[in-house]
Records
---
Amino acid sequence: MWIERIELRVVRVRLAEPFETSFGTSQEELKLLVRLDAEGVTGWGECPAQAFPGYSYETAWTALWISERFLAPACVGKSFDSAEALQKAFSPVRGHPMAKAGIEFALWDALGRQKGRSVSVLIGGTQHAVEAGISLGLQRSDELLIEKTGKAFGRGYRRVKTKIKPGRDLQMLQALRKAFPDRPLMVDANAAYTLHDAPLLARFDELNLTMIEQPLHHGDLLDHAELAKKIRTPICLDESVTDRNAARQALASGACAIINIKAARVGGLAEAIAVHDEAVKRNAPVWCGGLLETGIGRALNVALASLPGFTLPGDLSETARYWPEEDDLFQPAFRLNSGGTLSVPQTPGLGVTPVLTRIEGSTIARAEVRAGSPT
Ligand code: OSB
Ligand code: MG
């Protein structure tokens, strides 16, 4: 497809409730939306980099800058028939995976629409519905965490993940496990611990958690492998798995047994598929993570999770978990099926359409790169 134009918008979306992790609290999220026009087809994508560089060094603003200055000029006015070809054009730019992913996602949407195929079908997805899980932020009290966890299981979520950080861990989790003795529970530390905390983390063994996600710093693959020898709870890596090569090294070294795949974190859907393939080759389960995306990012995640290796519930929640359905920038909203799954859209492209008035009303910055325009 010959890319004629790329439009970039930083949009502001308000979460229904604050989301607290070990690196901070957010109530308002910024996202970078990408609109790509090619051969009469329009595709949309979402770079889910946040307002604050805590989960990643990228933010919506760095993604806007990198996309406008370097990525869009590298692809507008040129033709690409695959995500791999697009990624090749991006390869001189070091890093900034989420910025690259936003444009790549828009190309996938456009390619699917041009071919009349869903992105799930384009990538070889085999599942028509994916298991939904929920990620709960740190709460003001253990009682509130227990209440929200109960509500989530009541809605049908297949597992509940809760955030932890030093000082908000063992006791809180003991209370949670006592309230839900038989339910699938897991935790996510977002890199808040060090190997010195191994004795504390070993005490989690008694809690029968499905896994502990990213306990240590993102660069500490060796330390994760050490920790894995000291605890029985399986380790899942998120931040550390930056691409297929990191996935291979993490699995081969024993740093993790499970991978949380986020296509945005690894630079795009093509790389996410490669991470999935690497894990499947090594019999390691994977699941699809999230970054509080709007409808278009959620649609991309759900398409990814339709691949056969995604055998664990993802951080794939219904739209109303993030904000009221009528506030989303895309439609239709994602709703939980009975049984706690989300249906994989089967319509061409990513399967959701932009609500342009809401997008316009949420836009706080805008840039455009056209074929033939000076860079
Ligand atoms: O570590 O998985 C994470 C949200 C923002 C940044 C990092 C993470 C998360 C989540 C939310 O856990 C997942 C979601 O529901 O989108
Ligand atoms: Mg995580």
---
Amino acid sequence: MSGKVWKYITEKLASDGACHFSLLDPDPLGTSIENVVKQAKLVEKAGSDAVMIGGSTIFGVIDDAVAQIGEAIDIPTILFPGNITGVSEHADAVFFMSLLNSTNPYWIIGAQALAAPKIKLTGIEAIPMAYLMVAPGKTAAWVGDAKPFLRDKPKIPAMYAIAAELFGMKLVYLEAGSGAEGGGVPPEMISTVSQYIEIPVITGGGFNDKESVVTAVNAGASIVVQGTYIEKHVQNDKGAGLSKIVKGLKEAGAKRV
Ligand code: 1GP
């Protein structure tokens, strides 16, 4: 495990103050590998800092998609596995994540233990990350047997985030669920959580415009993830809208450097 991707992330955060990650879901029921490869090239061109590959419902094998995306772009490919089926040795790194507010130990440590030998033996860089599910949580919360945090109770996820930091995790992901309504995780929750930890906060789920992305960064998020926005718009406008969002994010980030 070289640690190259983690070095890239920390250096980017130090220089830019905030990063934009693009989530691509190579689900053959919703898209094709050809399309996700096109999307990957467009998000790179628009200035996104990394491509995350994954989803809660994996239909088919993701190996081909990860390999082809990796060949098409220079920014890192990071697995965002919804289960053990989401691990591929073709990625640059994997978010080795634990859904800390799941009610089912499988999603806290069971799946991770099943995937760990492959990750270790193939040498994929693992970035340990706490995955915290915020209401509504959508499909990820349903699949992950989560007890999603209430949107108006930021101190509870803050306690989990502090625990994650004490466990030695490198990132805390506040997830409202892909396609969440309401403009992502509430800024008050992002700011409360970031206030109590030194490790970066990454957030995603429902950030569908520049305003919500910039608000998240201003509240303290270091990395904002967009998936649905990219799926819907990046091929239609050739990444023009995403470029503006990334520009807005970087302007907000620059104020924190
Ligand atoms: C989901 O946080 C990601 O895991 C992205 O969410 O699809 O709503 O952008 P969206």
---
Amino acid sequence: MNSLSINDFHTMPNDFPDLDVYAVVGNPIAHSKSPVIHQRFAEQAKQKMHYGRIQAELGDFAKVAKSFFAAGGMGLNITIPFKLDAQAFAEVLTPRAQLAGAVNTLYRQNSQIFGDNTDGAGLVRDLLAQGLQLRGARILLLGAGGAARGAMGPLLEQSPKQLIIANRSSAKANDLAQLFGGLAKTNGVELASSTLNELEDPKKGHTPFELVINATAAGLSGESPLSAQAADNIFIPSSFAYEMVYGKSTAFMQQALQRGARVSDGLGMLVEQAADAFLIWRGAKLNLMIDPRSVLAKLRHSCD
Ligand code: ATR
């Protein structure tokens, strides 16, 4: 059970002298599922820890994070809108945080604050757990903002055949394709960029994709980034449509379902990125004790 109260919006380590204290920082943060996810991992791995929520005011991230670590806090997760502030706050960035251009996990090591990013790894783990074959697949990534960038490295490392980045504005999609050109080459991936409008044109060679990931913010405002024409070109019944947003069936998911494709929301990505953060903080060996898929199943059950 989630026994957190409103006071936990300001979790500070001094409030829990006998426990290792972690928290998620965001704004808003009231509905974050991270505390309940980490509480379940802690139970599974028999860890004495508390994981709370902190709502920081815009512009206050560094102040909040500094006082949290100064009071003995062990680690933070960071969510919207502070992932860039967290990157600036970290004294050392892991290679994948550098590649992602954002930080969602902070921890202290050898008296330095490290910044990592587990979002893309969480996405890939969720896709693999759902039975997707990523090696050799043709993947369409919708969006070229922070969420898309975080997914790029881990997706390319799976050696798909092709990865097309499609964005509303072409400049950002081109930039992302350029940034990841080297990694794509190393992994033998055909990487290209497109505009969303170009997806409507069959002459552009955009035949159906095995995996389409919506990393745009369109779902939040009830829209799909795809026109009906583009959806017709992209989805076939063997396609898999992955929506990074969770907790609702978005317009993007509906378009895919209407064309017979399989769909998933991003709740599994949330749980898997949390699992990765938990293992960074508490030790990779605990991998044998935690079961993210059972945590996900319980979470889905409690949302029904
Ligand atoms: P995030 O960190 O969530 O990725 P972001 O960096 O602001 O947020 O990026 C938002 C992404 O969603 C961008 O790719 C944006 O497209 P543009 O670069 O053209 O702005 C995309 N986006 C937002 N609303 C959209 C909509 N209604 N239709 C299509 N794309 C949308």
---
Amino acid sequence: MIPRKLIDKLRASERILVLTGAGISAESGLATFRDPGGHWDQYRPEDLANEEAFRRDPKLVQGWYAARRKAILAALPNPGHLALAALSSAVPELTLVTQNVDRLHQRAGSEKVIELHGNIHQFYCIECGLEAPESAFSVMDAGKVASCANCGGLIRPAVVWFGEALPKQALDEAWARAEVADVLLSIGTSGLVYPAAHLPMVAKRRGAFLVEINVTPSALANEMDLVLGGKAGEVLPALLAALQTHKNV
Ligand code: BV8
């Protein structure tokens, strides 16, 4: 299942960059965004993941994020997350950049995770910035609008919405790592959201070997040197096992 060429590339690699998307959390039972039955099935991105939509219908958007947060807290890292965490100790240097906001990589043991789109575990007041207390989640779970105890402003998730800039430090670091990567693994992402979807191109321009792991070809598949069709939770453990087997030869 794992081409020898990829094993050789990984064994010779000094710096690996991994970019993940919602697909790596699918086997933890979490909906993706654009697959059938995914988050966007019922809504369009513009309906939920942007500030105008939030201010227009805070109950809908808060309720959607609170429900996702609840599902994420009940979910467990899957073999794909765990294999990536183990991979980072099987190679000289691995940088993990994620578009996901679920923090399952961290729960799987990945230590250094660059979060391009923020995280769903923290909420804050859109007016004064005060971090929301735990009690705000029960208000949202009850279908009510949670507002700030300090100034009455609306409470929002600490994620990056459409039209919002990505965290500068995360973006700069991801770009810097892409420019020196010799292998890039793009895992479980449709490659449709920018600027995250630029990352593989940055690495490619600098000569990196690009690999995609996805159940269906993404929008970036034609740019890849190797496309491995399959579930991240199956391909990544096989990749780790193959690397460890060949390591001993
Ligand atoms: C910005 C919020 C500027 C958090 C999200 C036209 C052209 C190019 C760009 C644009 C454009 N018009 C507008 C833009 C910019 C826009 C954009 O890219 N739009 C797209 C849709 C065209 N980008 C932005 O607005 C970004 N900000 O540009 O700001 C700026 C600069 C300075 C100052 C001010 C402003 C902000 C982008 C972030 C938006 N936030 N979500 C949340 O709610 O989670 S995006 C959302 O999509 C998620 O964050 C998600 O991470 C992201 C990407 O989706 P994927 O992770 O790839 O998930 P998806 O469902 O799409 O795909 C899943 C994949 O997994 C599939 O391929 C599937 O086959 C695969 N899969 C499924 N199961 C498995 C699997 N693979 C392996 N194993 C499995 N088991």
